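Why does residue order matter? Because the sequence determines the fold. Keep that principle in mind as you read this record.
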Amino acid sequence: METTNLASEIKALEQELHEKKNRLMELRKSVPRKEVKNYQFLDSTNQKKSLLELFGEKEELIMIQNMGKSCSYCTMWADGFNGVYHHLTEKAAFVVATPDIPEVQDAFAAERRWQFPMVSTAGTTFKEDLGFLKNGVQYPGVSTFQKDESGAIFHVADAPFGPGDDFCSVWYLFDLLPSGSNNFHPTKKMNKNADYQLTNNIAVQVTNSAAAVDFYTNTLGMTKVTQGKTDTKLQIGGQNFYIEESSANNVFFELAVKDFQEAKQELLAKGCTITNTFHEKSMMFSDPYGLHFHLFERV
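Structure:
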């Protein structure tokens, strides 16, 4: 009898929470919308990108107010968004905004294997204007926007992020454990066996880059991201492919490490060779077994 009563109470409370959450969302979206200026950002490739441009072909935009690389909690939230990014973009544009400079964003996103676009809010009042920067302190959360036919942008709603919220699934899963989320603190290290972290960048050397790019885009369905002097960046499923003109026909993976000099000495001692040097903390290697890779020290 007691078990039956508990089950009934749980079900009733779940229904009450569901109704209150729906009411909360209704209230958030009922706040009068305010037109905002067309903020100017830099994307992770250091290119200028306006708030309006972030919408792309969508009329609605979800913008994550991420605190940046230094926050392991924000990193965990972003890891979760990465898995559902392709679902989110069926409905609206999706962008993660951090105060990190573009170079840091680009390297960190590659290490985390994130596929969503990012913009840097450094040098703007964007976070402060929306209430996610107060007295010099960053706060995490999400903002949504809508644009009209004239290109005017309206701020729709905000929600804060924090342990136990609806935006990170790990908390509810932990809540079902006897220990709950006690003593849990997210870590940013993905490879638990060593310091070498595989990024989502792959360089492919080909003898006819123009034909290769045509094949990869028009046949395999990759998207052309940028066209550089020496290579073309393509993307599919969050994986970046850099197509480079060369007679070598090699494929290079990419690894990030915390201490480049220590990793370099270890690799050389294991029979690896340096095939190209960009600078003292960024080099190309070949191992004795056929693998080629770029190694760099994470920022």
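Helices lie at 2-30, 51-54, 72-88, 102-112, 126-129, 170-175, 209-218, 260-269.
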